[in-house]
UniProtKB/TrEMBL annotation:
GO terms for biological process: mRNA processing. SUPFAM superfamilies: CYTH-like phosphatases (SSF55154). The keyword Lyase does not apply. It is an enzyme of class 3 (hydrolase). Residues 58-249 form the mRNA triphosphatase Cet1-like domain. It catalyses: a 5'-end triphospho-ribonucleoside in mRNA + H2O = a 5'-end diphospho-ribonucleoside in mRNA + phosphate + H(+). It is found in: Nucleus. This is mRNA 5'-phosphatase. One of its GO terms (molecular function) is polynucleotide 5'-phosphatase activity. It comes from the Eukaryota. Keywords: Hydrolase, mRNA processing, Nucleus.
Length: 317
């Protein structure tokens, strides 16, 4: 049994982890008398107090993972979409320039994106996959899967999934445990991180309320699965088509194991996982922002600040 609140315990231990992590180095020129300029690393301390903290969105994501990763059969994923005002049905507007968590009962999350943005990411991820299959590629492995499924939904949050041939793949009851919503004014899309459990159940004997036909393309890189899904929903109102984009932590067993090491004060990689999850999502949104002209959307208020990304993009070159 844990003796402290999970989030507070995580904050203390993440700080200890950071104190043992190598700091970035700023390289400066140093000239000795009569000698050419030589580059020497300038080592900067973490702070006048001798330690540093992770704050803001990174802290929220880290605490969220720490709290929920211990739950058996948990699924943690980020859906890209739009935070909408329930009254106006327009994308949320706040007088801020930085990404932030939003807590409000007057918001809803639309977990679909425009077809143009969906195609943009499909093309870019295909390029990434093709590059990773070249003989001279030396980076980490990228895998690809393309499949079609049908989801049938029943009362009690039960979902029956069939493969393309009509065979049962899984029957589950999916229950959302918690989520956090983030508004990203510097991007054309927002995101929601959710923790859900999946319980295997028997197939219901009633008729489904509706069904969804899915065509999914999934790209796996390190711990993350990037899923692009075209969805056709069939119900009494007819058929509608939407496009969904998700980033899922695909190896929860590893995340859970690293969390347990952190909880037991053992060497671990939980901090690397936690602080790597948000940048993975962020880079996806920044790509969307850079190609905003390809994805016009009626819910998007353009109040972005391009200069924010200048130093970041320069550092990557």
């Amino acid at each position: 049994m844990e003796r402290e609140d999970g989030a507070e315990q995580n904050r203390k231990r993440l700080r200890v982890e950071q104190e043992t992590t190598t700091q970035p180095q700023v390289v400066v020129a140093h000239r000795t008398q009569g000698a050419p300029v030589a580059e020497q690393p300038l080592r900067l301390d973490r702070s006048i107090f001798g330690f540093s903290e992770i704050e803001g969105v990174l802290r929220k994501v880290s605490d969220f993972l720490f709290i929920h990763a211990k739950t058996p059969d948990i699924e943690i994923e980020a859906k890209l979409g739009f935070l909408l005002d329930k009254d106006t049905r327009e994308r949320l507007y706040l007088p801020i320039s930085c990404e932030t968590e939003v807590i409000s009962s007057n918001l809803t999350f639309q977990s679909s994106v425009p077809a143009e943005l969906f195609k943009l990411f499909n093309d870019k991820l295909n390029e990434r996959f093709r590059a990773a299959t070249q003989p001279d590629y030396r980076g980490k492995k990228v895998t690809y899967a393309h499949f079609r499924e049908v989801d049938m939904f029943y009362p009690g949050q039960v979902r029956v999934t069939l493969d393309e041939a009509g065979n049962e793949k899984r029957i589950i009851r999916k229950k959302r445990i918690s989520d956090i919503n983030f508004h990203s004014p510097q991007s054309v899309i927002d995101f929601r991180i959710s923790a859900s459990t999946e319980e295997h159940v028997e197939r219901p004997h009633t008729r489904p309320s509706h069904e969804r036909q899915k065509e999914r393309i999934s790209y796996r890189f390190e711990l993350f699965s990037f899923d692009l899904t075209k969805v056709e929903k069939l119900d009494r109102q007819g058929t509608s088509t939407t496009y969904e984009m998700e980033v899922e932590l695909a190896d929860m067993a590893l995340v859970r194991a690293e969390r347990q090491k952190l909880n037991n004060k053992l060497p671990n990689d939980f901090l690397a996982i936690a602080t790597g999850t948000h940048p993975t999502i962020a880079r996806t949104r920044i790509t969307a922002h850079a190609h905003a002209h390809a994805s016009p959307h009626t819910h998007t208020h353009t109040h972005t600040h391009d200069s924010t990304y200048i130093a970041y993009d320069m550092a990557r070159q």
